Amino acid sequence: xxxxxxxxxxxxxxxxxxxxxxxxxxxxxxxxxxxxxxxxxxxxxxxxxxxxxxxxxxxxxxxxxxxxxxxxxxxxxxxxxxxxxxxxxxxxxxxxxxxxxxxxxxxxxxxxxxxxxxxxxxxxxxxxxxxxxxxxxxxxxxxxxxxxxxxxxxxxxxxxxxxxxxxxxxxxxxxxxxxxxxxxxxxxxxxxxxxxxxxxxxxxxxxxxx
Length: 210
Fold this sequence. Notes:
It contains seven helices and twelve strands. It is of the alpha/beta class. The strands form three sheets. A seven-stranded mixed beta sheet has the order 1-11-12-6-5-3-4, with helices on both faces. β3, α3 and β4 form a beta-alpha-beta unit. The radius of gyration is 16 Å and the shape is globular.
């Protein structure tokens, strides 16, 4: 796993020392080496197709518009549900048959899914994306059984604002790097960045022929 490294991003030392469960009054802004890697080398020529698991925002439309001619928001972040609602939401994620998605921002969806739901997500993504598609994912490293729904806003291709938008909810067990590698197949991890907060950002690419 030579892709595993430590990024320079993350929250400040003061932010890392906040009391567990304390809800911040405003979004936290951090560096995002994973998002920067997602867009690294991608031409600003309007030929790409973006799938963002979050909700639509003017900020994201402006940023993605530099790269993509088509942009879709799945609306799973931060409103993800388990069981049958999740399965229906997966099927509702629109395909783009003329040009399958080649840039995907999954945010913290893997964290918030139960173990049996994660393969459903990756199988669906394999159906919706082109060979060589890039996938960004944010994964926590702790084994806490709950997580907080978050809204993520890109302030640029290397900075993210994170905002807690709801109470704690049940989450899947934290994933070790080797487990993330298995879960993401047929996406192959190229880079992983460990943030000061303990979270990891992953950049993976869909294998050719998958």
